[in-house]
TrEMBL record:
Sites where the protein binds [4Fe-4S] cluster 2: 257, 260, 274
Xref: InterPro entries: Aldolase_TIM (IPR013785), Elp3/MiaA/NifB-like_rSAM (IPR006638), MoaA (IPR013483), MoaA-like (IPR040064), MoaA_NifB_PqqE_Fe-S-bd_CS (IPR000385), MoaA_twitch (IPR010505), MoCo_biosynth_MoaA/MoaC (IPR050105), rSAM (IPR007197)
UniProt keyword terms in alphabetical order: 4Fe-4S, GTP-binding, Iron, Iron-sulfur, Lyase, Metal-binding, Molybdenum cofactor biosynthesis, Nucleotide-binding, S-adenosyl-L-methionine
NCBIfam families assigned to the protein according to its UniProt record, in alphabetical order: moaA (TIGR02666), PRK00164.2-1 (NF001199)
Enzymatic reactions: GTP + AH2 + S-adenosyl-L-methionine = (8S)-3',8-cyclo-7,8-dihydroguanosine 5'-triphosphate + 5'-deoxyadenosine + L-methionine + A + H(+)
Chain ranges of the Radical SAM core domain: 7-224
Cofactor(s) required for function per UniProt: [4Fe-4S] cluster
Residues reported in the UniProt entry to bind GTP: 16, 66, 97, 158, 262-264
Protein's UniProt keywords contain S-adenosyl-L-methionine: yes
Classification via CDD domains: Radical_SAM (cd01335), Twitch_MoaA (cd21117)
Name of the protein: GTP 3',8-cyclase
Top EC category: lyase
Binding, S-adenosyl-L-methionine: 29, 70, 121, 192
Length: 333
């Protein structure tokens, strides 16, 4: 079997790399309004250290990378890191998740450096609501980032929309229409209780079955797609006659843990087997020692759980393990 196979015979070939825990927005589902305490810059992995970890991962079977944050584009020189990562033998696909605010100015350099595709967070098409959800920033800059992504040739371009009951669920039809009229891939994502499984999360959580109901109500005929490049856990659909597609990512109502193929590297240097649980392995003591780094990857495989049990929090059921207390921005989505 390939090197990175866990106890449940899931093969891991995908590493998500958070390059910073900082962000230029304060989205209400990602961090509290007052923000979180950011790690000192000295605690973050250097680009040299990230490259070292990825080189070890590639030797063990990692082929796909995703650059995340926080907001990755706030860290200077990101295109230089991408260029180095794309040169590592075995790495064949590099993608980026961003809020899009700074993307218009960096899209060309990132494409040239080796980023193949982008996921852009877009939770609303309404400027005033954007201010409510993101608590700062400008929707126009995000839309400019999407336009720049089309221009430089990122493909596919995915728009990540976290659905929040009572906040943006009335825009589901508008997002479906956007995907019908344009060659974009809208992905509706359930609100996850990462670091804050509180009443606010329960009140705003919305199962994604509602998306298919609205598509039916609008007489948008759909058919399932086998795959979109980099689709991961998304359940994908195309609307007949439409130019784009949409996907459902429902980690709470219908978790996809049985297909999980990913590990995460946090900005402060921890290898994380599962987004939800508390387990993290610091790579810093192993830097400079390829065998020790390899051993950490294998240890992550041993720690990888069968599933995350997020849904248990909706009904306050007991869980088998301890959830993380870190917010999404501190882990890397």
């Amino acid at each position: 079997m390939p090197g990175l196979t866990d106890r449940f015979e899931r093969v891991h070939d995908y590493l998500r790399i958070s390059v910073t825990d900082r962000c230029n927005l304060r989205c209400l589902y990602c961090m509290p309004e007052e923000g979180v305490e950011f790690a000192p810059s000295s605690d973050l992995l250097s680009y040299d250290q990230i490259v070292e970890v990825v080189e070890t991962g590639a030797r063990l079977g990692i082929t796909k990378l995703r650059i995340t944050g926080g907001e990755p584009l706030v860290r200077p020189g990101l295109d230089g890191l991408v260029r180095r990562l794309s040169a590592i033998p075995g790495i064949c696909d590099i993608s980026l998740t961003t809020n899009g605010v700074l993307l218009a100015d960096q899209a060309a350099a990132l494409r040239d450096a080796g980023v193949n595709r982008v996921n852009i967070s877009l939770d609303t098409l309404d400027p005033a609501r954007f201010q409510f959800i993101a608590r700062r920033g400008d929707l126009k800059r995000v839309m400019a980032g999407i336009e720049a992504s089309v221009k430089v040739g990122f493909s596919p371009i995915k728009l990540n929309c976290v659905l929040l009951k009572g906040v943006n669920e009335d825009e589901i039809g508008d997002f479906l229409q956007l995907a019908y009229e344009h060659p974009l891939h809208v992905r509706f994502i359930e609100y996850m209780p990462i670091g804050h499984a509180d009443e606010n999360w329960k009140n705003h959580y919305l199962p994604l079955a509602r998306v298919l109901e609205i598509a039916s109500e609008r007489k948008l005929l759909t058919h399932r797609l086998d795959s979109i490049v980099g689709n991961g856990p998304s359940e994908d659909y195309r609307m007949i006659g439409g130019k784009g597609s949409f996907g459902l990512i429902h980690p709470v109502s219908d978790h996809f843990c049985q297909r999980c193929n990913r590990l995460r590297l946090t900005a402060d240097g921890n290898l994380k087997p599962c987004l939800y649980w508390i387990d993290e392995l610091s790579v810093k003591p192993a830097l400079g020692d390829p065998q020790a780094l390899s051993d950490l990857f294998m240890r992550a495989m041993e720690l990888k759980p069968l599933n995350h049990e997020m849904a248990a929090k909706l009904s306050d059921e007991a869980q088998s393990h301890q959830p993380t207390a870190r917010r999404m921005s501190q882990i890397g989505g």
